Structures are given as C-alpha cells and as structure tokens.
Amino acid sequence: MTIDTVTRAKKNSKVKQPFAALGLKEDEYQSIREILGRRPTSSELAMYSVMWSEHCSYKSSKVHLKQFGSKTPKNDSMLVGIGENAGVVDIGDGWAVTFKVESHNHPSYIEPYQGAATGVGGIVRDIISMGARPVAVMDPLRFGNPHHPDTRRVLNGIVAGIGGYGNCLGLPNIGGEVVFDDSYQGNPLVNALCVGTMKHEDIHLAKASGVGNAVILYGARTGGDGIGGVSVLASETFDTTGSAKRPSVQVGDPFMEKLLIECTLEVLHAGLVEGIQDLGGAGISCATSELASNGEGGMHVWLDRVLLRDSTLSPEEILMSESQERMCAVVTPEKVEAFMAVCSKWEIEAVVIGEVNASGRLTVEWHGEQIVDVPPRSVAHDGPIYERPFARPVWMDERQSDVPTIDRLIRPNTAAEIRETLLRMVGAPNLASKSWITSQYDRYVQGNTILAQPEDSGMIRVDEKTGRGIAVSTDCNARFVALDPYMGTQLAFAESYRNVATTGARPLAVTNCLNFGSPEDPDVMWQFEQAVTGLADACLELGTPVTGGNVSFYNQTGSIAINPTPVIGVLGVIADVSRRNAMAWRSAGEVIFMLGTTTDELSGSEWAHEVHGHLGGFPPRLSLQAEKNLAEVLIAGAQEMILR
Fold first, then answer.
1. Where in the chain is the domain with CATH 3.90.650.10?
2. pLDDT by residue (tens digit) across 223-269?
C-alpha cells in the first residue's frame, strides 16, 4: 500500500483528490490548500473532511449560536459554558451537574438499533469526560406516521437500542417524548440527553498542555465501523438507499462502556489526567485536533500504535473511524504507569499514541513516515463559517392566515360530541399512553429516581444526606414552531421551564438540540435564525443560561424538510426531593385549581391536527413574565408543601 506522505504532497501538487466525495466543497478544498501551502495528504484530507462537516464544525449555525453567549445571562451558577463537551452548573452544597442533549438522527434511520444505542453511548461519554458520574438519561423521539410500515421498523429498533444500551449501563431513563408526525417520515429524530453529577473539584476539560505529556488512547479497539459516520451522515439529506450507507453507522458495546465509565472516573479522581476527550464524531481526528487546539503547544501522534480490530485499515480510515467506547487522555510521564494500572484493573486496553510538544502543530506519523502536518486550530476550530442567506418564506403568509375559526374548524357542542371528541383525543397516537415504550427502560435503577415517566419532568436525588436533587424536562411542539419559529421555540422553552417548576425545582439552565432541514435552503435558515433568536431572548428574560447543545441540519428527504424541531431541555434544582410535586392526584377530596388564563388558541394544537388535519394560524401567545410568576407560585407551593 502506497502511503501519501507530507513529503510526497509537497513534491506532487497536481494529484486529483476526492474532496467532493468526502463532503467538501470546491472552495473549502482550496482553503485547505491555502492553509497548508500545498495539497493535503490523503490523511489530512480525511481529517479536514470530517472536522469541517456540518456536524463537527457548526459552519452554518455558528453565526447565529453566538446569541447564546451575547444574550444569555451569565450567573454564578455557570461553572463551564458553551465550548466544552458539556456545560456544568453549580447546584449548591459543593455539588455540580453537567447535562447535554445531542442528536443521532440519520444513523438511527439507517440502522435503528445501533444508531440509537450509540447515540446514548456518545452522550454518556461527553458527560464522563467532564469528570461527572452519569446518573440519568432521557430520549426525545420523533417518528413518522404510526400507520406507515417503515415506522414500525424504525420505532421498534430505536426503542430497543435505547433500552438495550441504557439498561446495560445501569442508568435510569427518566423522561423524554414520543411524537408522531408525517413530516418525520423517512427522517426520525433521536435526541439523547444525559445528566451527570460531580463535586466542583472534579471538573475536567479537553485540552493537551504540558510538553512531554503522553497522549493515551484507551477503551475499545478501532475498527471499520462508523468510518465517516455521523460526521458525513449528518451533513447530507436522505436520497439514497439505507444499505448503501449502513457501513457508516457505529456499533456499540454497552458492557465495554460500563467498564470505560468506571475506569475513567477512577483515573480522574486519582488525579492521573491533565486533559481528556471522548472519541465520538470524527474519532481520532476530532480528539487529537481538539486536545491540541485547546492546549498551549502541539502534538505528535504515532498512528501505527493504535490498537485495531481490523489490521487492514488504512491510516485515513483509522483517523476517520467512529468506533465506539474510546477515550483519549493526556497524562504526565510520571503518572503513565499508574494510569495503565487502573486501565488493566478494569480490563481496558490502553496505549500511548502521542506526545504533547511545543511545535504548535499536529503531526501524525505512520511507520516512520509523516502523513499529517497541520495547525490544529485550522482543523478543530477555524473551519469555514457561512452566513447562509435566509428570508421569511412567502408561504408563511398563507399558513398564518389560515386561522382555525369556529366556522373553519367546527367545535363539539353537545355532551355527546364532547365525549366523542375527548375519547378520540385520549386515543390519539401523540396523547395515548406510551407505557409500552417506557416499560422497556429501567427507570429506577441506582435507587435515586424520584420522578420518571409518565411524569412531565424527571427528578433524581443527588445527595442522600440532604435530599438535594435535580429535575429535567425536554419539550417541543414542532407544529407551533412551523407556525412561528420565534414564538414556537419560546413556547417549547416555556413548557420545559414550567414542567421543571411544577415539580418544585427552580429552573437553572438550558440545553438544546436544534433539528432542522437543509441550511442551504433560505426558508430553513430563516426558521433556524428565528428559533435561535427566540430561545436566546427568552433565556435572557427568565435568567436561564444556555450551557450547550447540538445542531442537526439536513433532516429532510429530498427537498421535503421536517417540521422545525428545536428540542429544549431545562434543568432545575430542588433543595429537598421529599417536597417535590408529583403529577398524579393522590386522594379523594383534594381541591383542583387551574392556574393561568385559558383563551381560544387552537392553532397547532393536537385537536386541530387529529380531528381536522389542520395546521395554520398563529401559536398561543406567550407572556414570559407570567411564566416566571407561575413558576414562583409552583416552587413556593412545593416548599411549603401546599401543592401535593
């Protein structure tokens, strides 16, 4: 096998390279040549292609996501914000919580079980890389028409994958959503959220500092699964058959992940690690470039030292592989032996694959020949940034003018009509019991679950001595967002905020998973810009900072995009979980109150959809001040044990 070395690339600049097949645009390829002052080697091209993908680089969303930094309030509870593997917030008594939601949409359609399973595994590794112990997971899911034959294939596989992986890890699944809508046909959404707890002193970051420090790859061996996987799949629409893309989906091993969790937490708590990064999208390309970019120097990697499941893999494939259950740690020379001993204790394979240096470059060697020599920031952080054109679609006028008036959508009037409508609604796919799904998840493992499905918000006890706990909720009515992206996203945030407050917990921080169609479509980019602006404005008004999240573009089949679906997660803290509010009524004689104002707002409602197949008008109007006032009442009612 002929290896494309840096020396060869300098001598031969006219080699035709398959940049387009790797997802790069012509101008992006030319930018790489300008950065390097030559053509890239095939290994460098592989690294740039995955790291400059939409999934890894956020190249179409960065200009809008900056609002979360400029508008979102900073407060003393924010310990680690946007930019790290996951945000971290202070919840009091020396405790900190990290939480994040990410997508694994495209892989889960191609291979539902493994796509969903590895989505759970990936978000869990983000949490442990911060130094936290995972304590719960949640899964907001979206599927197509429940009567479509392909929905059964996708739904059953995804639910089995989530349950199979999470249950094996011993993590309670405390919430999420299951929503059906025709817009998700052929493009289901699998968003996975994980929550972890730690003490303040246990926080760790992803950086490679200290000249001479060792870079250790540990965990599962590297195989051919996931080569170009989520990084490429998440940057294109579905217009080819699933079988053609199946090799790009990762394969998970939850039992290896469980060992990896315990091993990682032990080396972190023992003070054996200077910096740490999980291997997810883009694999070794991502871990090495981000560690080097976040550090103060450079890094040299001996790629031929990587332990392989498949000895036939090329250097390019090793760099792009997204094999699961792998981590990368930076360790001082005197602690390498102790680090390896902990790995051996947990039967985790580990090998030194690199070293931190003062070069300011990321270099990769393959059997004595240099195949990569790049500025690490150009790979990890300084990729292309697009200001995509966006404009309010003309068709929005027609949609919003189609208001569901009484003469347009007939309401039930008689007792019999109301009864018939009520029975139809409670049996609708989006409102009917989801216990046949949630019963496949272990909700109470570890013994700290206070609230779980079918509650609207999950709750976990963090400190057994004091009773301190956290509540988490995820929400989004995508039909509201389709009617008005700005207001619809604020409504999603308000619902999640309200669900947390209903338990008696005080909302503290926000994460998000923004699922949209193609960023190359000005209509979609307008929806995205409006959604981000709406969320940033609402977070500013309610004083809840965004700690991080995920953007998933290209959620469409051909030219048909999904309904814009910004899933919003809110985390709250409660001083004593024994004072929490549950959703169910407990005994006869209790007094029932309706808090808030009810108006004739049926646009985007489940009734309009289920009974009339209608989507038009404007979503409900929202008063964020009223939401804040309501939350204060709910929290005080829980603390005083008035609401039960």
1. 204-380
2. 988 786 645 555 555 444 444 444 467 888 999 999 999 999 999 99
CATH class in words for 204-380? alpha beta
Q: Cα(228)–Cα(98) distance, rounded to whole angstroms? A: 28
Helix, strand, coil % in the chain, rounded to nearest 5? 40, 20, 40
pLDDT digits (tens, 9 = 90+) for 516-575: 999 999 999 999 999 999 999 999 999 999 999 999 999 998 889 999 999 999 999 999
Q: Which residue has the tokens 């039930």?
A: 412
The two tokens of residue 86 are 């996951």
Active site residue 55: yes
Task: Choose, from 64, 104, 300, 614, the residue flagged as catalytic.
Answer: 104
Residue recorded with tokens 């992206």? 485
**By three-state DSSP, how is residue 131 classified?**
coil
Please confirm, yes or no, whether 381 is among the known catalytic residues. Answer: no
> What DSSP character marks residue 427?
T
Q: Which residue has the tokens 């985390």?
A: 571
Give the full edge-to-edge strand order of the sheet including 189-199.
78-80, 87-92, 95-103, 189-199, 133-143, 173-180
CATH 3.30.1330.10 domain extents, the chain: 62-203+388-639
**CB distance 574 to 505 below 8 Å:** yes
Give buried/exposed letters for 46-78 (b at 16+ CB in 10 A, else e): bbbbbbbbbbbbbbbbeebbebbeebbeeeebb
Query: What pTM was computed for the model?
Result: 0.94
